[in-house]
Write a structure and sequence with these properties.
Number of strands: 0
Keywords: Cell membrane, Membrane, Protein transport, Translocation, Transmembrane, Transmembrane helix, Transport
Radius of gyration: 32 Å
Oligomer: single chain
Family: Belongs to the TatA/E family.
GO molecular function: protein transmembrane transporter activity
Membrane topology: Single-pass membrane protein
Structural class: mainly alpha
Strand content: under 5%
Order of helices and strands: HHH
Subcellular location: Cell membrane
């Protein structure tokens, strides 16, 4: 059972009905980009496997020579910005914790 010209024409007609003629070029572009990205990722994985096999032999000979010092972990700019925002929030009078008045129950 082979696909004839009428079946192909029917499939094209259904696709046009579903997606519309204006969206088909965008859809084709998107499929092409996805295929290109997929090909590049597959090639990269194959190259990584080759480099990893070659790199494993050199890594075993280089390992005793490496004397890396442990790095000190510092706060990044995002953490510093977060802390400064929090400090600014608590420095405002309306956000500061009020002392308990004698004779009042704070949990009530």
């Amino acid at each position: 059972m082979s696909v004839g010209p009428w079946e192909i024409l029917l499939v094209v007609f259904v696709v046009l009905l579903l997606f519309g003629a204006t969206k088909l070029p965008e859809l084709a572009r998107s499929v092409g980009r996805s295929a290109r990205i997929f090909k590049s990722e597959v090639n990269e994985m194959q190259n990584d496997g080759k480099q990893q096999g070659a790199g494993a032999a050199t890594a075993t000979t280089d390992a005793p020579q490496q004397n890396e010092q442990p790095r000190e972990i510092t706060q990044g700019p995002a953490n510093q910005a977060q802390q400064s925002v929090e400090q600014g929030f608590w420095n405002q009078p309306q956000n500061q914790q009020q002392p308990n008045q004698p004779g009042t129950n704070p949990n009530a």
